[in-house]
Amino acid sequence: MKEIMAVIRPKQMTRTKEVLAALGFPALTAWRVLGRGKQKGLAGEVSFEIQPELMKQDGGMKFVPKRLISLVVEDEDVPLVVAAIIKVNRTGAIGDGRIFVCPVDDAVRIRTQERSSEAIS
Description:
Blueprint: E1 2-8, H1 13-22, E2 29-35, H2 52-55, E3 64-73, H3 78-89, E4 98-103, H4 117-120
Antiparallel strand pairs: 1-3, 1-4, 2-3
Helix pairs in contact: 1-3
């Protein structure tokens, strides 16, 4: 099993959820997060007014609102899920996000105590 964590633009959250659900991966966890990449924040990523003094700083602002999604899938499903997330979220512009794939040693469904693959299906 692998955990796929993706940092994406907030406006892409709904479409990403829809595509993953259509592919058979409706279960995920999502967080509202703040972050920045090498550019140290992009002012164009936010829909609120930015204070003028922030614009004078290198990189425009300290952090940018993003969404972090996480889902655990079987090893053989990783390429499909990663490709779907890329297809929905890739604009070719700075700030498209990142995807991380991490090993998962075990999973347990608390209600039934099912383990491993049965716990995530």
